[in-house]
Write a structure and sequence with these properties.
Elements (H helix, E strand, L loop, with lengths): L16 H9 L7 H28 L2 H38 L4 H13 L2 H26 L14 H6 L2 H10 L1 H7 L4
Helix pairs in contact: 3-4, 4-5, 7-8
Length: about 190
């Protein structure tokens, strides 16, 4: 909505509120519709002339030039499609490598896409997430696979008394597994 320039109303500052309202209601704006219409007509005419020149130019092209232009457009489209396919192939290769390393499918896909896009920050973020999950799983597997120590006297150090209280086969097995400790217990013999 246009604003009314009060500086163009004579004596506006000294008017009462009612007089100001009446002066503003009676204010006549300059009419620019003719100028706007003239400019719109000029733009329409220029667009029409440009379209006509384009049509004339196309008509002037020889059949050979037209065929050459079409070939160039087709070659450009083929190159663009080739670039897209190369990116997709690269993404799939990267994804296969990440899956073979043990990445979950969705994380492998996200990381491969980041590699193709050159988003190294996402690659490192995903790698960190994978390593943390992998380490957690590995620790869990190691803890599950660790045998529990046998119940006993609580002392794991071998003494002569413990050694001689073992059966002969257990004593021989322990001596085979711990030859240095066996020699030390028996005084080098």
């Amino acid at each position: 909505m246009p604003t009314i320039p009060t500086d163009k109303i004579e004596g506006y500052e000294s008017m009462t509120a009612d007089q100001k309202v009446e002066a503003l209601q009676n204010y006549n704006f300059e009419d620019h519709t003719a100028e706007v219409q003239r400019l719109q007509n000029a733009v329409t005419k220029a667009n029409g002339e440009a379209a006509e020149w384009k049509r004339k130019h196309s008509a002037l092209l020889t059949e050979e030039e037209r065929a050459k232009q079409e070939r160039e457009e087709q070659a450009k489209a083929i190159l663009e499609r080739n670039v897209e396919l190369e990116k997709e192939l690269s993404r799939l290769k990267h994804k296969a490598q990440y899956v073979s390393l043990g990445y979950p499918e969705d994380l492998a896909d996200s990381t491969a896409q980041a590699m193709v896009d050159g988003d190294i920050t996402t690659v490192f973020k995903n790698q960190k997430a994978f390593l943390e999950a992998h380490d957690k799983d590995l620790k869990k597997q190691l803890l599950e696979g660790t045998p529990k120590p046998p119940a006993g006297t609580g002392s794991t150090e071998m003494t002569k008394e413990k050694l001689f209280s073992m059966s002969i086969s257990d004593r021989a097995e322990w001596a085979r597994k711990n030859p240095d400790a066996y020699k030390q217990l028996l005084g080098g013999n």
